[in-house]
């Protein structure tokens, strides 16, 4: 019988310490439409490895041998 109050006190002390450690969520600052970043590019570099069916690389290809499509357009 004497152990029950001690166990309850321990449980309450541990649970209260966990409650005080919970961090409060931080507010997200309002984002305005003025904070837009637009980026354009003229060069996209692709590293490509072309292989035969047996896994050997084809080494005599030139950039003119390739066509790059994005969304179905060249």
Characterization of the model:
The protein has 74 residues and is mostly helical. Helix content is 26%, strand content 0%. It is built from one helix and no strands. The chain is elongated. The model has no long low-confidence stretch (mean pLDDT 75).
The string of secondary-structure elements, in order, is H
Q: What percent of the residues sit in helical stretches (DSSP H or I)? A: 25-40%
End-to-end C-alpha gap: 82 Å
Given the structure, what is the number of helices?
Answer: 1
Compute the number of strand runs: 0
Please mark out the parts with pLDDT under 50 across 5 or more consecutive residues, or reply none.
none
Radius of gyration: 32 Å
Mean pLDDT across residues? 75
Shape: elongated
Tell me about the largest β-sheet: none
Question: Which structural category fits the helices and strands?
Answer: mainly alpha
How much beta, percentage-wise? Answer: under 5%
Lay out the secondary structure.
Blueprint: H1 3-21
Keywords, separated by commas or semicolons:
mainly alpha; single chain; 74 residues
Offer a quick outline of the entry.
It contains one helix and no strands. With 74 residues, the protein is an all-alpha fold.
